[in-house]
UniProtKB/TrEMBL annotation:
Protein name (record): Phytochrome chromophore attachment site domain-containing protein
Domain Phytochrome chromophore attachment site stretches: 130-289
Residue stretches making up the PPM-type phosphatase domain: 514-720
Organism: Cellulomonas terrae
Lineage: Bacteria, Bacillati, Actinomycetota, Actinomycetes, Micrococcales
Record-level Gene Ontology MF annotations: phosphatase activity; photoreceptor activity
Keyword entries, A-Z: Chromophore, Hydrolase, Photoreceptor protein, Receptor, Sensory transduction
Pfam families given in the database record: GAF, PAS_2, PHY, SpoIIE
Amino acid sequence: MPGSIQPRGVFLAVTEPDLVVRHVSQNLPEILGHAVDDALGHPLERVLGADAAGAIGHHVRTWGNLRARNPLVVTVGDVELDAVLHRVLNGDSTLLVIELEPASGPRPFSFPNTYQAVRGAVEKLNHAHDLAQLYEITAREVRALTGFDRVMIYRFDDEYNGEVVAEAKRPDLNPFLGLHYPASDIPPQARALYEKNWVRLISDVGYTPARIVPGLDEETGLPLDLTHSILRSVSPIHVEYLGNMGVAASMSISLLRDGRLWGLIACHHYAGPHDPPFGVRAAAEFLGSSLSLRLVARVEEDELEARVRAAGTLATLLTAGRDEDRALASTLVGRTSVLDLVPAQGAVVSADGVVDHVGRVPADRTALLAWVAEQDAEVVVRDALAEQEPALAALVPELAGLLALRLPDGQAVVWLRHEAVHNVDWGGDPHNKAIAVREGDDVRLSPRKSFALWRETVRGRSEPWTEREVRSAEELRARLLEVLLERSRLQVRAAETVQRSLLPSSVPDPEGWSVHARYEPAAGGRVGGDWYDALGLPDGRLAVVVGDVAGHGLSAAAAMGQIRNALRAYLLRGDSPAQTLAALDHVVRWTMPFEMATVVVALVDLSTGEVELSAAGHPRPLLLRPGGSATLLDHAVDRPLGVGSGEPPTTTLTLPPGGGLVLYSDGLVDSRETSLRDGLRRLSAQFDGTDGRPVDIDEVLRECRDPASVDDVTLLLLCRDR
């Protein structure tokens, strides 16, 4: 709403349908010979004459979309004028805006004239092979059409910094091709106008604005909205900017993609004022629209080809990922790897307990994966690690950027890029904007004045991750979740099969004693490393065992099987519980260095009730006494298998008739929502006061197990008859 126009034409705003002049530009006398006061408040016929006013009245009554029918050629006196019409909202009503420019160029202006002017250019655009050719042809043809000294195709990046990607110019001018310009040169409000009004002409940079009279509308109290005005006066800062560049006249044509500004056709003239007629400007706008359409088509073509390639790579990766005989991490860095999906210098994959890599990766991959696991976002994108994540950059100084997929249970896929040093040639120092200038006691805004070539070396950044690459990574993550779920189900079934096969098919039933045992996997069927055993020994004693290998899944079940079989062998050899645990600790240390397990072993003399017991890191058994009391057994516990002391302590006791032992795993008494103290209290309560009443082991499980527990549960009950 600048309240003024460029004086190459006349501005009128009239009411409808009576066409009474409500606003007029101050330069009316110079162009049409009428005083401003003679026009305001009077019918349009008084200003333009009956023929011209009648033609405009007939035109606005006939056509709805006036901007699509511009210009209307009218004659005022002996002057032929282009009348460019549109409506503006003014309070609750509208005003008809009439902008009159002296007519020149082919007459009458029509579609055939426009088409003939650009027909050859459109043919050339149709035969362009790539974007560079599209840009070059458009710049050359717009210059030939409009006569400007220099025509540039100006493309924005994601932050609206601009780059000159094509140029057609007078031979004696310095080239601007390849130069970059900071986003501050075209501020956001100017870019918003470019998206609404596609052509802007400044025919004389040194013009003196002609004010619109009255400046404020009498009904709204506001200046008129001149967004779509072809004569709209421009920011004095922009005029000064052009003057600093030595430009005498300029024109810009918006290049849009999906309604969003992606670039401009920027035209500069240096020899003096330059005023291409409306018809030529319309033809140039048509060329700009053609370039935009072809750009969109080309980009969509390229994206389609890239999507097809990515889909093929994705299908290959996922097919390999479903091979149960290979680790998922290894399949993703195989012959067809994640680097074929998203280019990078290297990639690290952590899946199903395996970490593998391809390409150049840092030595400290553990810190990298730990950082990814801590992120909240499922897809993490960084292209300047030293600036964005200084703590991580200190651990992996060779990296400048990463694209990471965070997967369940600490799993991840991480693409890695190293520093990409490159030079950017700017048209002037972009960091020295200097837009505030003090003049006496006043401060005014001023655009930068230096446009000399300024080369910036960009360091510490990787090649940016494109939207297409991020989308491909997101698609891989979605599909990997399905693969992980499938593999998890297979592993659960395999682990459960192993687990069930290693548990005793039945427990001994010695005379005068009863043995009951139960195992239940974690919620969701997640099999862990719990097990129980009850074994009659050659010397007549009974061995009862409950153990727990850390972790879940097939690896935990497999480790449990090895420990269980070794434990049986030592007991059958005649070792005591302490000797058995010491030997097992040695086995775990040397053959399963990454495993850890807890276990409690009790040898029971069935005739006397004497018990010899040792525990490694396992919860203390519950001692049942005749009469119904249940207390935790007071005995020393060694460290878990794999980190044991080598000399597990031994506890001896006697179970009288009516007495018993309860062995269990920690999943029964400890969970995220139940403290160990409360869990033990709940378990003891199931056995207190049970004298003379048999205990239902399944009921104990139901009452004691926390539904929120993520651990499997084992319970073994040994009782001596009364």
